[in-house]
Amino acid sequence: MELGITWIGRKGRDFIVAIFSVIAFSALAITLLALVFAIKGKHQLYWLAALGNYIFSFLAGFSIGQFTVGLTFVFLALATGYSFHLIKKRTHLEIFVTIGVLIGVLMILYVDDAWLFFPFILFFR
In the structure, what pLDDT confidence band is assigned to residue 1 with cuts at 50, 70 and 90? Predict the structure, then answer.
């Protein structure tokens, strides 16, 4: 059973896959745009980059989503650091990026997908 929608036929499944592809690549585009503007100084956009990357990771989960979800933690670390005004120097930035990478790697290696994507799993039950 694919996506729990076997009753709608092949054309319907292809249409739904196309919709999910559009959503996934739109989330990726939002991530990249937010990231560019966040790097240029609008640091609150790291939150949007994290959300867009998380959505993209979930929808691309069967191919590269497992790796891209690790970047979400880098964006979250940067967003947290800038939101609480903890990043004042380049050294602080490097520390928060390192923390985000470490958390991301640990989550990819040791946490199951069902827990990494738990909010979305609730919508698809």
Answer: very low
